[in-house]
Specification:
The structure is a homodimer. By secondary structure, chain A is α/β, with parallel strands linked by helices. Chain A has 2 domains: 86 residues, Arc Repressor Mutant, subunit A (Orthogonal Bundle), CATH 1.10.10; 105 residues, Oxidized Rhodanese, domain 1 (3-Layer(aba) Sandwich), CATH 3.40.250.10. In chain A, helix 9 links the parallel strand 6 and strand 7. Chain A is globular, with a radius of gyration of 20 Å. Chains A and B meet through helix 1, helix 2, helix 5 and helix 6 of A and helix 1, helix 2, helix 5 and helix 6 of B. Chain A binds a DNA duplex through helix 4.
Chain lengths: 224, 224
Amino acid sequence: MPRYGRYKTALYDQFARVGKALASARRIELLDLLLQAERTVEDLAGQTNMSIANTSQHLQVLKQARIVESERRGNHVVYRVTSDHAGNLLTSIQQFAEVGLAEVDAITRRFHDGCEEMEPVDRVQLMTRAKTGDAIVLDVRPKAEYEAGHLPYAESLPLEDLEQRLASLPKDKQIVAYCRGPYCVLAVEAVERLRERGFNAIRLEDGVREWQEQGLPVEYEESA
Amino acid sequence: MPRYGRYKTALYDQFARVGKALASARRIELLDLLLQAERTVEDLAGQTNMSIANTSQHLQVLKQARIVESERRGNHVVYRVTSDHAGNLLTSIQQFAEVGLAEVDAITRRFHDGCEEMEPVDRVQLMTRAKTGDAIVLDVRPKAEYEAGHLPYAESLPLEDLEQRLASLPKDKQIVAYCRGPYCVLAVEAVERLRERGFNAIRLEDGVREWQEQGLPVEYEESA
DNA sequence: AAAGTATTCAAGCAAGTACTTGAATACCAT
DNA sequence: ATGGTATTCAAGTACTTGCTTGAATACTTT
């Protein structure tokens, strides 16, 4: 079908454009952060240990593929994902890598061992226990990410503030900590530390994105 | 968290590996074909107008990302997707491009206009009508792809054989043609030609993959 | 208006990718 | 074994990407 040659290549080019945007570990790291909350270039550069200029350039690649968009806000430029569909892209890559690439399993296992995770079936039940106060759900990400969206009944307790606020946590209830998702180590570390102090702590593998993709509800801060 | 730096980059590298494999229009085209049916290198090279060596190289990139696998069969090497998860990758990229990139819409519109598609709601109903014989479902892809999996009650009528078999088609029933999916033009062309001849033809946008992802059943040939 | 901060742009270099060509390998048929 | 076919490998070249550096731009504050 020579007549359709141009049509086909043009389409594949568009699809590849999205693929190209996801073809760099740096850009995936940026996207991963942006899926938690919107951020300035400066912030992203700091979080990823990249130069500002380099960060800006990577962001523009993501922007060209319409995965992220930007908005000038005063002196800063704030980047955010264009839609929830962007999360699906990363999710499907992660899912694929999880089942297909033995390396991923090996890497995560090295860091997450000894820290039992919640069974997937517990999700719905967890919310009812959180609602009644039988379980405490902790969001151990930085506060800004909590404010951009968090699980229902979760309270914000950034990992860095953990030590100072230990006293306010109950020893007799189960504490469920979550962070950015299955590959994030914040909750692993939180649970580790809590257990050392004698708390009954457990890690929820999900992050907000995973929660949302399950069709479960998410809360946002009204203020902002 | 300097302690986790290596862990994080190692993971992002793995995810990017998948992204890299999808970062070329050529490779997406190959994957698209492989999602319809397994194929030899020679066949793929022919379908995509690439040199054999180049095709082989692209296939190896896909193979390294575990998106496809290969098996020697006599004199040929047959490539196939490793799992259905590979289809999800392409689907999520396509879905993203569809909503995010205006270009995709513009490109497809240029070729698919004037050819009404079936409403998504018709899917389930379509099968019952096909079952009772009220509608004829035609798979207009090459026969090998039909054999690798097709919609229930569909009969194989490759586009190239259409003219010869017009006589066997009824004028009083609705004919529903489908091909590789929303971006494939085989069914568009089939419907165009059928209408010119006075048939009541309509295009189903789905391909086998889309069908499957909806959780709907698919049939395979027993023989093979 | 002037100075300061955040971001982008432009140029340059090293490294990586895409494609071609011709040789090497693996299997089949005789 | 020999010749034929399908695929992969190796080397070369043009092109693209990733990162750095320093200048340019956009906005804020004084």
